[in-house]
């Protein structure tokens, strides 16, 4: 079997192969774009062929920026389009593709790789761990009365007109530049968020609100008229239980999110509102007078993270508590093993090889899971995946690996 990077000449073969692997059809390009694969970069795509030249597998990656704790922007490879033809599964093609890709990424100097897993059981064995989580929040409109904030100095409730800023509804086709700029402002401060490169917006590649599917966009502007948030949404057909579904709510702070949530919850002729991509611990349920009005469902993993260079990755992110840990990290897929002394002082980390006794022993997939602060290390200790060699090691890790806010990735790739 041969694995090589695609060129412009065989890019069509790559597209056909990955669609065949998933049992799909590529679709026909149309004016205005909108095909998910149109943003793929040929020089970041891999094609596996048999000895007689038949294409049997694919893997690709995008060049993204990932926001790390501490509002650090780091380059990250966004792995996508991984597939093997049904006729060649369980013959080592996938493992060969993933190993080839990881070595390629390292040779290019990348130290982080991320993906969205089509199936949760696949990518752990390649060193990826689930690092962000998301769910749906469904609110019945007849139960959507807002709670009165009880804290002194709390953000004013926009539902009673005491908040600042305005909301304007625009067709998606009229606000492309606005939502692109707002998203970019948002993602630079949100741990776990990925950049949306300009070519994605230009090609309209992806899912709403990037894609050309019809949507309305509620744009929030601050008191100076500057856009600082939006909610992309669609309303279903008329029915007894007509539903308004929010694709994503992007806001620079909680007050803007509250204003947008109150706006869509006040939409007429709607029985319920479904908020997609709500992170764990989000305050929206607490902002309803009836706590049970917000029904959580679809709780699932989001972004999966893999560290390609442990010291570089750990020194890249921001830290919020001083401390020290010795980490014994195994990478079974690449056949690697390293022990590192992680020392954090004044929000900066030093990570160097050491032969000291470890505080924690863990797989590289578990290090990826805790890297953004979305998975608590002691949870993995209790689950039997991370071994703590002293009674206080897990508590130290919990404090060290925390983030300033819950990591979240809403970008589909």
TrEMBL record:
Q: Which GO terms describe its biological process?
A: aminoglycoside antibiotic catabolic process
Residue ranges of every copy of the N-acetyltransferase domain listed in the record: 1-152
**What's this protein's family per the entry?**
Belongs to the acetyltransferase Eis family.
Is-annotated flag, keyword Transmembrane helix?
no
User: Quick one: which residues bind acetyl-CoA?
Assistant: 82-84, 90-95, 118-119
| Descriptive protein name | Acetyltransferase
- The active site annotation covers 123 (proton donor), 413 (proton acceptor)
Q: Known Gene3D superfamilies for this protein?
A: 3.40.630.30, SCP2 sterol-binding domain (3.30.1050.10)
Q: Which UniProt keywords apply?
A: Acyltransferase, Transferase
Summarize subunit and interaction data from the UniProt record for this chain: Homohexamer; trimer of dimers.
Gene Ontology molecular function terms on file? aminoglycoside N-acetyltransferase activity
């Amino acid at each position: 079997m041969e694995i090589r990077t695609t060129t412009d000449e065989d890019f069509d073969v790559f597209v056909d192969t990955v669609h065949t692997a998933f049992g799909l059809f590529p679709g026909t390009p149309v004016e205005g774009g909108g095909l998910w694969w149109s943003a793929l970069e040929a020089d970041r795509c891999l094609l596996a062929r048999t000895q007689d030249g038949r294409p049997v597998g694919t893997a690709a990656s995008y060049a993204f920026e990932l926001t790390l704790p501490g509002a650090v922007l780091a380059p990250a490879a966004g792995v996508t389009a991984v597939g093997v033809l049904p006729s060649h599964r369980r013959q080592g093609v996938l493992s060969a593709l993933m190993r080839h890709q990881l070595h390629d990424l390292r040779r290019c100097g990348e130290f982080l790789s991320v993906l969205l897993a089509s199936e949760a059981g696949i990518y752990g064995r390649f060193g990826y761990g689930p690092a962000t989580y998301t769910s749906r929040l469904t609110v019945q409109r007849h139960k959507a009365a807002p709670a009165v904030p009880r804290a002194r100095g709390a953000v004013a409730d926009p539902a009673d007109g005491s908040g600042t800023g305005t909301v304007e509804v625009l067709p998606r086709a009229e606000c492309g530049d606005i939502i692109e700029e707002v998203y970019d402002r948002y993602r630079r401060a949100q741990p776990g968020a990925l950049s949306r490169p300009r070519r994605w917006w230009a090609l309209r590649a992806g899912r709403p609100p990037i894609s050309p599917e019809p949507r309305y966009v509620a744009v929030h502007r601050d008191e100076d008229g500057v856009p600082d948030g939006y909610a992309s949404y669609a309303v279903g057909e008329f029915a007894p239980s007509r539903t308004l579904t929010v694709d994503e709510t992007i806001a620079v702070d909680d007050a803007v999110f509250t204003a947008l949530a109150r706006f869509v919850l006040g939409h007429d002729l709607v029985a319920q509102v479904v908020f997609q991509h709500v992170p764990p611990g989000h305050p929206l349920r607490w902002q309803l007078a009836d706590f049970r009005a917000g029904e959580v469902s679809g709780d699932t993993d989001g972004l999966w993270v893999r560290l390609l260079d442990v010291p570089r990755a750990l020194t890249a992110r921001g830290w919020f508590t001083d401390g020290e840990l010795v980490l014994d990290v195994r990478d079974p897929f690449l056949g690697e093993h390293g022990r590192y002394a992680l020392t954090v002082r004044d929000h900066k980390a030093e990570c160097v090889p050491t032969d000291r006794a470890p505080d924690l022993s863990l797989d590289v997939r578990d290090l990826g899971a805790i890297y953004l602060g979305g998975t608590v290390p002691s949870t993995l200790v209790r689950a039997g995946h991370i071994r703590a060699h002293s009674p206080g090691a897990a508590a130290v890790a919990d404090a060290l690996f925390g983030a300033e806010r819950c990591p979240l990735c809403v970008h589909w790739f």
